[in-house]
Design brief:
The complex is a heterotrimer. Chain A is built from 19 helices and 28 strands. Chain A is α+β, with helices and mostly antiparallel strands. Chain B is built from 5 helices and 5 strands. Classes of the chains: A alpha+beta, B alpha+beta, C alpha+beta. At the A-B interface, α1, α2 and α16 of A face α2, α3, α4 and α5 of B.
Chain lengths: 754, 160, 271
Amino acid sequence: MRRPAPPVYSPTVQRLEGLAKLTGRECYVDDFPLEEFLWGATVRSPAPRGRITRIHFDPDIEWSQFTVVDYRDVPGPNVIALIESDQPVLAPGYVRHVHEAVVLLAHPDRAALRRAVAAVRIEVAAEPAVFDFRVTPRPNQIQYGPDNILKHLRISKGDVERGLAGAPIVVEGTYETGAQEHLYLEPQGMIAALEGDVLVVRGSMQCPYYILKALREALGRDETRLRVIQTPTGGGFGGKEEYPSTIALHAALLALQSGKPVKIVYDRGEDMAATTKRHPSLVRHRTGVTPDGRLLAQDIEVVMDGGAYVTLSPVVLSRGIIHAAGPYACDHVRVDGRAMFSNAVPFGAFRGFGAPQTHFANERHMDRIAARLGLDPAELRRRNLLRDEESTATGQVIRDGTDRRAVLEQALLLADYDAKRAAHTRFNRSSAAKRRGIGIATFHHGAGFTGSGEVMLASRLVVAGLPDGTVEVRSANIEMGQGTLTVFTALAAQRLGLDPAHVRIAEADTARVPNSGPTVASRTAMVVGRLVERACDDLLRRLGAEAATGDAVRAAIRHWHEGHRGAELLGEARYTPPPGVVWDDVRYRGDAYGTFAWGAYVAEVEVDLRTYETRVIDFVAVQEVGKVLHEVLARGQVQGGVAQAIGWALLEDCRWKDGAMANAQLTNYLIPTSDDLPAIRVAFLETPYPYGAQGAKGLGELPMDGPAPAIVNAVAAATGADPCVIPLTPERLMADIKNAEHGTRNAELRQVGR
Amino acid sequence: MNNSALRTPHSTLTISFTLNGSPISLDVDPTDRLLDTLRYRLGLTGTKEGCGEGECGACTVYLDGLPVNSCLVPTYQVRGRRVATVESLPGARLDPLLAHGATQCGACTPGVAMTACWIIDHPDLLGSHTVRELLAGNLCRCTGYDGIVDGIAAALQARR
Amino acid sequence: MKLLQPSSLTDALAILAGEPGVVPIAGGTDLLVHWPTRPPEHDKTYLDLSALAELGGVRWSESELQLGALATYWDVIADRRAAQELPLLVQAARLVGAIQILTRGTWGGNIVNASPAADGVPVLMAYDARVVLESVRGREEVPLAEFYTGYRQMRKAGDQLVVAIRVPRREYTMQQFHKVGSRRAQAIAKVGLALTRSAAGWRVVAASMGPTIRRCPALERLLAGGVDLREPEALLPAIAHDTSPIDDIRSSAEYRRVVMARVLFSALREG
């Protein structure tokens, strides 16, 4: 199947829709022209748990002017189809979290609608709720299974007890991470409208086919009468993976009831309060090491807060535990992971999907081990990073030919690590109010669905040759800023030797595009991009023009259509797993991912001892990603991911009341501004992955994994404190520094024998 | 469409102002924000609502030549004044931003473009302010701001 | 909603005298926040001041700076003389928020919004500013330091309008403003501190440290006494006397107290 290398068109093709975005012409869901439509809104539970005793509609309002929907209006089963079908579309007389949707309203006037929402009072007979996922629930708080455990997963490699017993030194630590709000700049929104007998749903989303499935199930409507179309999506980060199904169903119910198009667009406060967030976590480590720093045994316990419904928690937990032991070689590993039910607004997909939480713990713990042994943190990592033919915690043997130490060395070099460490020692001696430090993290991220997930997705993609000799890529993978349109265009153009102007990407419309899977899990460029290439190859095969390129391809396409008037010329590709990938989903053993991307990040911080504020003053991000498909886009992914992770590490503090966000305003939930960030320096190493598009590996999530531990390690180096909880707000750091000054450590360091 | 059972009746008022260089006169509801008027009355949907609390800057427009958050401006206050929106920016001015990756998802982008062009038009401000400081009212969740800052720097360079 | 758009200050004052409960609006940066989701606010009567030219301007005289109530932060930032002579006004203005806020937010609005976390108020107070109030009954001046009587309570009658702020011109031997927010740019203050020293003595003003922004008499006495401070903790008793910080969603009382002491200590050290 090897073909002569096609002529390469400029790889610096600009982001295709970039100018439309810069000039405001890009048409998002709230910009979509609509006539004679209703605005839709949601009346939500005021209580975290209990039976709804009464729904009171203020009699001063002329309710006949409103479309009103509750759970009794759901035609099919009242569930939002996902992993478990436990979450209702609308609360059926019982609520499990604050902000749970109970009643839907629609009206042509948005201001009138807002008043009406405030005029519905939901009364709940409160029952004991559970808010702290870290403690064992009392019997009257049990609401899921016998123990509120949503999912329990284990990884076991070697014999961890034996490994710990034989270890001369055992280091322990407990680490916690907070929830994080996605804060995509475009709030969630959806439009539903009947077009003839077809219910058409348009909106901001990552996964059109997830929504199609949810509509099919709960509306009891077959797919021929359903159509889901993605509108340009103003950021997702996982927040528009599963949640949009809920809004789509709500808009659909109101549209079916009223017979009119219905638009629901959340305002920022509602979006922050009612939609998913990153799972809070608690991770305990117990690690056996030799005095010279070799890892002998890693015993890891991972607990995550799932919130009030299962949503995606089982798979977030899965990815979390698979990454929990880090990119290190260790013979004895045990990871025990639990996702816990709580009466919090459900947590969900967020860039990194469980891995940032466990990487934070592991990389902080590596620094604690280094401190315990008196080793340079970089040296400890050098000694333990996986070499080819060594295996991960699940027993996946790594043999991708990449040099993980080179990734680390490159990062240290760019950051001027050794010189900075020396300079900081001098600086910290001379400055009264400021402390500087440098910290590192080495980490990995598996791209694509975990285990056999990609096989089960069975993604399919089509490249159509059109009568005018141009081609159209038809996939369900969407653009949300990460560059799908540009990358797919470039991949198809390069594969066929075409000018990118002769390639278009079809709108993600379930009536027109096959199901190439969700736009999640860093899979789009690597996995689906590979399908683009293979579908292009198939197109050429159908043309009998395997060796053709450029104008010859266009001529062949036109010629085909002359002989097949009215027919469609389709090149097709279906996912096939890379050879030799074996995963045991019961024992959690084997090849968790086709491949991993590797990263080494270095953060330099300055801490102000007057205010305990931490400022990141330099950041170096080096990663091995197989192949960079587009320099500007790839760099942008890393810089944006690092910025988002800096927010998670230092600023973004979800405050809770009854399991709901108490600071659901941008005034009180602070994300980094341009003035809070340094320039983020990015470098890539490339060892092509044979089963990714042009050799690419997944990139989107990787940059979320490294910054938090690198930064907190830098703060520890700067201050001598031992912070173990993020976000590391000034208030927390004040307490951490105080603890360090008083010689009490957050968690005990224990030496076992010698 | 007004539901009289629900809302205090507002008398509309007529205002005239200059929009993107052309005079305009229209009846507005006194509760309308400039953002609402632009988006839902005039169909100028380039201006985005990101937060409605003056934090994110996605709704940035120029009022008498100065950047403001249109979500915090009552429409009645623009009578007799000059309003310019992202639709008034010539595409060619935005090339350096495009080339440096200043836009990803695009939701913050029109506001970013407005502030960026304002900075580029007032290089004298950079004697006392940094680009990052002047840009701090435009939240972006995708780029980490480097692409925006680099794009502005390139545009400033090109002006010299 | 009822909207009144007077064309002169006289008309505006007549309206205020005649219609109790009318809400004056200037730059809108406080009143319009989350506007669509606050329908009760839509039922009020508003008095639009934005067209009243006589309330604008940054005017210098021999003895004072007079800020019109509608002077914006950006007006002050753009005033070269302010940066030289009353630099804390410029520093505080720059920290209020983003450029989009600075071009709209007014000094008069900052005063009457009466937020305990305001940025403009502490520096004005440290400069001994006086608030000029006007009504149909006449003109009145209140020292800003005596203007706030409780949480969001002011010495301003319903018919009075803040029309100007008068800031005396003096020689200062020390002037500093520190704002500790959760983020470097455009964050609400967790601790604000304005500090001046002139022939009139020390002024220490704390923001976000109690229900109102206020001067700190115990700290001012301590500094006037010329005590040699060895460590930040030495300031804590006076801070405890002068302030009453609380735990809220932005910070904790302990953090506020400790950080105020450390920032003040460091400010005094560095002069």
